[in-house]
Structure formats: structure tokens, C-alpha cells
Write a structure and sequence with these properties.
Blueprint lengths: L15 H15 L8 E2 L11 H14 L15 H12 L11 E4 L2 H7 L10 E5 L3 H9 L15 E5 L17 E5 L11 H14 L2 E5 L25 E6 L12 E4 L5 E3 L5 E3 H12 L5 H9 L3 H27 L4 E3 L5 E5 L6 H12 L1 E2 L1 E2 L10 E5 L4 H13 L3
Parallel strand pairs: 1-13, 3-4, 3-5, 5-6, 6-7
Antiparallel strand pairs: 2-8, 7-8, 9-10, 11-12, 12-15, 14-15
The structure holds pyridoxal-5'-phosphate.
């Protein structure tokens, strides 16, 4: 007899994006005339082509692989030094942070890293998760058996939920309870909110006081426009003692289909065994990576390194400008329609309050039926997301303009 991991059965059956897909299919079948004009502002996936510098590096690396003299087999476990050095220099040293190349682990995605990190962390940890949230943090803890079942509202037993609403500017208050692991993501998906240095400092102080670890997802740092918004948890004094950071090339350089990311684990970072002895998380993560992962492909690591060349930096900036230009259009259209709008200034997501407290799935159906636009209902990201919806700025300019117009023409 073979048995399943029954924790999977606790997961909510109607996962957000399949349910959106189902409703969109129903709509296009019922409205074949409107189907060609459907515009998707739902799933957070990039739409624009890879930067030229990235494509050139990819081509060159593929040619190297085709020549016996320059061919490469397995990559080094942490990732190629040329990429880790470029990351350390441009993403950290240039912003005054002390992160060395050997604290950077190159991977094929921030989604898998933020999920796999649980491999090295104990199941007795108390987990704090923001609500609404990028579903990966919660679902992977459910799968690992770190929760009880969900209640009728969809809240899992054993999780410390940190509600993020307009009342706290979508940055959670420090809880009274002690959490051992805290997931934070800024700029935030789905709310588009950012956290200030003071807010992150309060979390770092809390983590240090409680010997907790902050799992910080900075996948959207490249979208930050305001000079005083932190790009990394390591801009905060003391974070090297209490934080792991996840970064990705998916959203800045359009690598969602190319796959490259990295995780930063400071060398001094430690967590305890049951007897209270400290162990290096850097060593454990290194062991985990060496055992379960054989590296991101050489051409892709070359492609990622090209992001840090002068041409790459200019081209990435113009991609970001493109998406943030969309965000501005969508933000203004929603605000002009009388809606209460958040985010969209340092992140590619606009988080909108539903009018008159309408449930977010009802707004989803309304926007789909009246405007043929797919948005994401806030309830899909957690209980505290109810009463909001997300508009993604990942689109062509023409589509963003069209969506802005349709939002303006709707009877809200
Ligand atoms: C898109 C996204 C990522 C990136 O994941 P990859 O696996 O690197 O593509 C990470 N975190 C959040 C919150 C995201 O929205």
C-alpha cells in the first residue's frame, strides 16, 4: 500500500487561478462576440520581450555549449561566480549593503526557493503570514503539515495571520504573539504596498528579540520609484542576524519563462535545534541545494548576468518604465472612476477597494461581464483581501490604455 501526504487534502480545492480560468471560459463561451476583446489583467506575468542584452548573452552561451572547448556541464552548486559577483556588487554593495557573493545561492525561481526553504526549518516553528498573501507561503506550510485544517472562513489552524488593510497601510502591526518565522514581501504582491525603513526596522527588532527569522521576498524591488523605500531587508540594521531574502529576475528582466532567481542567506544567520544549540542556516541551505538541486543552466545564468551590464541595466529600466507607465494609467483611471486606489506607484499592482463593500468575486464577474477585463479578486489572496481587487500592470501599453478606458466607462 502506498499512502499520500494527507496535508495536501487540507488545501482549498478551488485554487485562485483555476477558478478564474473557469469563470473566464464560461464567459467566452457564452459571449463569443466579446471573447476576442478580452483583456487579462489577472495573473502577474510579464508580457514584454526579454531585453536585447539578455538575448545576446543567451545566444553566445548557447554557442559556447556547442563547442567542446567551451562546453560546460554541471554548474557550481551556489551558481556561477560571474553571476553571484555581479549580484553582490550591483544589488547589494552599490546600495551600501554588506552581502558577499558566497552568501548568494542562484536558483531557478523565487517561488521554489520560498517554498523549499521549509526543508531546513523545523516543524515546531510558529508561522506568521500576512493576509492577503502570495499563496505560496501559506500553501507550502499547509503541505508540510505545519497547520491544522482550514475553518469555514478559510483560515488555517496554527497560523498567525497578520491582516494587511488600508487601516495599517498594508504593513502588518507587530503581533503580541511570538512568531518564529515571518513571511514579508515588499513591494507587495498583491497589494502593491511598500514598507518604510522604520516599519521594517520594527520587524527586524521583533525578530531579533524573539530569535525569529524573517523570510523576505523582494521580487518586486526593481519597481521601486521613491528614493526612501528600502530595496532589501539587508538595508535594515541587524537584518543579517535574522533574515533570508528571496530575489528573482522574473519581474524586472522578464524571466518568468526563462527562470533565474537567487536567495541570500547571511553566513552568521543561525537557528536552533531542540536542545537550543545554534546551527548555521547558510550551511543547511547549502547542503539542501547540493543534495536536491543541480543548478540553473549555464546559458540562463549568463543571461541573468547580462542584466547587470550597462546595456542590460538601461533595457531593464525601460521595461520597468513601461510597466509603471501602465500602472499610472490604470491607477488614474480607477481613481477617476471614483474608486479607492492603493499601490501602483512602487509596484506593478493596483489594489482597489470594491465599491460599497461588494464581495470581490462579484466585482470580478461584473468587470468580466461589463468590460471584458480579467482582474483578480482580493478574496483569492486571503480573508483580509476580501473587499479589494487587484489590477496587474503587466500588459502592452495599448491594452493598458484600453483597460483604463473600459474602467472609466463602467457603471461602478
Ligand atoms: C512573481 C513572484 C515571484 C517570482 O517567482 P519566480 O519563481 O522567481 O518566477 C516571487 N514572489 C512573488 C511574491 C511573486 O509575485
Amino acid at each position: 500500500m502506498a499512502y499520500i501526504n494527507e496535508h495536501f487534502l487540507k488545501l482549498k480545492a478551488g485554487y485562485l487561478f483555476p477558478e478564474i480560468g473557469r469563470r473566464v471560459n464560461e464567459f467566452t463561451q457564452a459571449n463569443p462576440d466579446k471573447a476576442p476583446g478580452l483583456i487579462r489583467c489577472g495573473i502577474g506575468d510579464v508580457t514584454e520581450a526579454l531585453p536585447e542584452a539578455v538575448i545576446e548573452a543567451l545566444h553566445a552561451a548557447v554557442d559556447e555549449m556547442g563547442n567542446r572547448k567551451t562546453f560546460r556541464g554541471y554548474a557550481p552548486e551556489l551558481g556561477y561566480e560571474f553571476l553571484r559577483e555581479a549580484i553582490a556588487e550591483h544589488d547589494y554593495a552599490a546600495r551600501g549593503m554588506d552581502i558577499s557573493a558566497d552568501e548568494i545561492f542562484v536558483s531557478d525561481g523565487a517561488k521554489c526557493d520560498s517554498a523549499n526553504i521549509l526543508d531546513i526549518l523545523g516543524s515546531q516553528n510558529r508561522i506568521a503570514i500576512t493576509d492577503p498573501v502570495y499563496p505560496v507561503y501559506l500553501d507550502t506550510n499547509v503541505m508540510a503539515g505545519h497547520t491544522g485544517p482550514a475553518d469555514d472562513a478559510g483560515l488555517f489552524e496554527g497560523i498567525i495571520y497578520l491582516p494587511c488593510t488600508d487601516a495599517n497601510d498594508f504593513v502588518p502591526a507587530i503581533p503580541e504573539e511570538k512568531a518564529d518565522l515571518i513571511y514579508l514581501c515588499y513591494p507587495n504582491n498583491p497589494t502593491g504596498a511598500t514598507a518604510t525603513k522604520a516599519q521594517l526596522s520594527a520587524w527586524v527588532d521583533y525578530a531579533k528579540a524573539n530569535d525569529s527569522i524573517i523570510l523576505y521576498d523582494a521580487a518586486y524591488e526593481a519597481f521601486i520609484q521613491d528614493a526612501d523605500v528600502p530595496h532589501s531587508i539587508f538595508e535594515i540594521e541587524g537584518a543579517r542576524d535574522c533574515a533570508i531574502e528571496f530575489r528573482s529576475f522574473s519581474k524586472n528582466a522578464g524571466f518568468t519563462g526563462t527562470r533565474c532567481a537567487f536567495t541570500v542567506v547571511p553566513k552568521g544567520l543561525a537557528a536552533k535545534d531542540a536542545e537550543g544549540h545554534d546551527h548555521s542556516l547558510h550551511a543547511l541551505w547549502g547542503r539542501r541545494v547540493a543534495t536536491k538541486f543541480n543548478g540553473t543552466s549555464y546559458p540562463i545564468q549568463r543571461a541573468a548576468a547580462a542584466v547587470y551590464t550597462e546595456a542590460g541595466q538601461t533595457q531593464v529600466r525601460s521595461l520597468i518604465d513601461h510597466y509603471m507607465g501602465n500602472a499610472k494609467l490604470l491607477r488614474e483611471a480607477a481613481a477617476n472612476a471614483g474608486l479607492e486606489v492603493f499601490g501602483g506607484t512602487n509596484a506593478p499592482y493596483i489594489w482597489v477597494k470594491t465599491p460599497n463593500g461588494t464581495p470581490s468575486w462579484d466585482i470580478f464577474d461584473k468587470v468580466l461581464n461589463e468590460a471584458a477585463v480579467v482582474i483578480t479578486p482580493g478574496a483569492g489572496f486571503g480573508t483580509a483581501g476580501e473587499g479589494y481587487f487587484r489590477i496587474s500592470a503587466f500588459n502592452s501599453r495599448a491594452n493598458a490604455e484600453e483597460v483604463a478606458q473600459r474602467i472609466g466607462a463602467m457603471a461602478w
